[in-house]
Amino acid sequence: MTRDKRGEYELREAILKLLTNEEIAKVSTAETAPVLAEGDEYVDLEKLGEGVSRADGDPVPTGRVLPRAAVRPATWSEIMSELAKTVLPS
Hints:
Blueprint: H1 3-17, H2 21-31, E1 41-44, E2 52-54, E3 65-67, H3 73-86
């Protein structure tokens, strides 16, 4: 495993550890939605280097995303802090 890949896994795990049981349930429910609503913010857990994305009406593979609406504002802030430590803006 490359160092970059290991870092990506570690970041993903750190983000998922921030979620409460209730938030995990909401994320699981969101995974069954066919698409995110236009304008919804989310983090793609398989593309963390892209940071926060916004749904634009095109289908988003919801099984791998963490929608902002599924977590408390405090958790979203913590997630943003984790991303800021690791992900550099392009």
